[in-house]
Amino acid sequence: SHSVFFVIDNSVSCFNASTFTHSFQTIFSLLYPLSKIDIPSLNIIITSNENPIILCSEKPTMSALDDNSPLWVSLFYHLSRPHSVSSCLYKALMSAYQIKVQQKTESSVLFVITDGFYNYIDRNEFNGIFNAFKAMNTIPITIGIGLNPFFINLMTDKAIWSQNPRNIWLSILFLYGKE
């Protein structure tokens, strides 16, 4: 079986008056198509000022992302309240890692949704976690949001940003050579 992880950087640099619409549309464009695919394990983790918010853990995509699912309201609620601390992504990635360690899934994809605006030391810490995910047959992919996602390509081997969020899945397919 397979699993998919979404770790969302809910910092002010990713979600503010200038970026909210694009950032939310990017996340929606990533999540909504998964409601039509039966993936047994969906995990959504959002950064916050203190501990990460685990919005969804080990839920099948078709039920978790159903049109009437309370997850959509909760997601919008949390994303409309970004935090000012930019160093919370590490904790959220560690939460995803702890969930993955306990899974018996064959393969996974980890989508890290961020603007990538982190310093060299932070990126090295993330790199350690990404390598641990790779060792567990999990592919990390950075999805760019925010005004200036130019550093996403420094975070993971595979990184995507699309000015038009509706094209995000085409970009992912292109990454895998299936366009």
Relative helix content: 25-40%
Average of the residue pLDDT scores: 92
Strand neighbour order, sheet with most strands: 3-2-1-4-5-6
Please give the number of β-strands: 6
Structural class from helices and strands? Answer: alpha/beta
Radius of gyration, in Å, reads: 15 Å
Q: What's the shape?
A: globular
Unreliable sequence segments: none
Largest sheet geometry: 6 strands, mixed
Helical element count? 6
Kindly, what is the distance between the CA atoms of the first and last residues, rounded to a whole number of angstroms?
24 Å
How do the helices and strands line up, and which of them pair or pack?
Layout: E1 2-8, H1 20-31, E2 41-46, E3 53-59, H2 61-64, H3 70-79, H4 89-102, E4 107-114, H5 120-135, E5 138-144, E6 158-160, H6 168-175
Parallel strand pairs: 1-2, 1-4, 4-5, 5-6
Antiparallel strand pairs: 2-3
Helix pairs in contact: 4-5
Give a written overview of the molecule.
- The chain has 179 residues and is of the alpha/beta class.
- It contains six helices and six strands.
- The protein has helices at residues 20-31, 61-64, 70-79, 89-102, 120-135, 168-175, and strands at 2-8, 41-46, 53-59, 107-114, 138-144, 158-160.
- A six-stranded mixed beta sheet has the order 3-2-1-4-5-6, with helices on both faces.
- Helix 1 links the parallel strand 1 and strand 2 (41-46).
- Helix 4 (89-102) packs parallel to helix 5 (120-135).
- The longest helix is centred in the last third of the chain and has 16 residues, at 120-135.
- It is globular.
- The protein starts with a strand and ends with a helix.
